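User: I want to check something. If I give you two sequences, will you return the structure for each one separately, not as a complex?

Assistant: Yes, each is folded on its own. Here is the first sequence with its structure:
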Amino acid sequence: MATKKNTPLGVGLDIGTMNIVSARRKDDGQVETSRMRDAFLDLDAGAKRMLKLSGVNFIDHGEEGIIVVGDAAMEMANVFGREARRPLSQGLISAGEMDALDVLGVMIKNVLGEPATKDEACYFSVPASPVDADRDVVYHKGVFERIVSECGFDAYAGNEAMAIVYAETAADGFSGLG
């Protein structure tokens, strides 16, 4: 499949338990990355004014309170003597976190930014199905396909374990074990 000279290659998105990171090649050949800490903290509505003044990213839930996301959540957790929450657990969406989907949507939109072109490709990572646990990645993959598509991208899931195998065996003609 031939690509036009001015067609962007797309954006890569790594959805990790610790960080969410995007990477995009700019016109000058440099790779531009954007990162957000995979953490959030819920606070009561009274903290909204302080957060607006400090320029912190947060989700407003009206009278229910606010949710601070990213590195600011870790900093605010220290300030308020609380523990930041995680929307992902063991590489998958945390079943015990009721706000996980809203938080992940905001984080991914922040990290991806706007598509460079209409329906720009976004390749995102999903973990391999574990062989020693009874967990499934189908729901996880579907949620992220929806979130990435809602951000204006064509979403393509990629198995992160297979990506490592491809990256490490390229010099050997993609022959090897992983």
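And separately, the second sequence with its own structure:
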Amino acid sequence: NDIQTFEKISGLISNLTWKKDDKLQRLQKLLNEDYAGKKVLIFTQFTTTAKYLDKHLTWKGIKEQVDATKGSAIKFARRFDPENNPSTDKKPEKSQEISLLIATDVLAEGVNLQAGQVIINYDFHWNPTKMIQRAGRVDRIGSKNDFVTVHNFLLDPKMKEDFGKEGSVDLKIDDIQKLIGEDYPILKEGE
């Protein structure tokens, strides 16, 4: 019975390709229509997802993917935002600066990415402090941007019901804001 079940599952997923991935296609459309020519940072929780996005997203500028397996994350931060990540190395030419950086949380703490204009949380993280840390890489002193845009890809409505994840994160955000005060909306404008 197990073999029959696995064969059925295999048949169902064999047709799934990146071309039929609605979430990936929506991200590609967002990048093409709204953020071409801007500095964009995409965060995902998983290395496999970061590599998948790198493989299938197209971008007219320089695109790089970074995770814990790539060595020093700071070298990518320097190519994304050389002004705020000084080094004794030669500063990259403007034409060699990364304009689309796909990263795991290896870049969510301790680096300066103020040159960024857009943050996209591809995975909805259960921990709101992670989302705050991600935004904090860009929305900080030294940014020359008047504002930073943050996009959160939320769960499919059916999954949202099943997991109750968004409600749980909402409660955590409320607790954080009660304890340390409000900064800016993390999940939605009405916070």
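Because they were folded independently, the notes below concern the second chain alone. The beta strands are 40-43, 63-66, 100-103, 118-121, 149-152. The chain has a mean pLDDT of 82.
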